[in-house]
Please model this.
Amino acid sequence: MFHNLDNQIQQTDRQSVSLTQQLLGVLSEEEYFARQEAERRRKLAAERQAKLFAGERERARVLHLMKCPKCGMQLEEIAFGDVRVDKCFSCDGVWLDKEELDLIRERERIHGENVECVWPVTHRTG
Ligand SMILES: [Zn+2]
Model:
């Protein structure tokens, strides 16, 4: 009698363990898919953000193109010797990019102390 009861308990325990294992399997599978889905959504959000950022950058580029960073007025290209730089005739700011600066430095290096002939604002081109 007790022997049968022991067998029944053992069988119930085995079924319980099996059921638990199945449930854990299902849960871990669900968790796996949930994580995959979360990762997919994170990727989509990052792509959306990158697109938005690219769009905003382009809008800012168009908005600020050839505008004085100091006063916001239109810049005009002028010649500094044989180097072309951007000048604001509103605030007298002169703006140049790295290549233009490198060219001016090179002229300075070549001409030594005779900097004045390297730096004259020669004429307005606009
Ligand atoms: Zn300005």
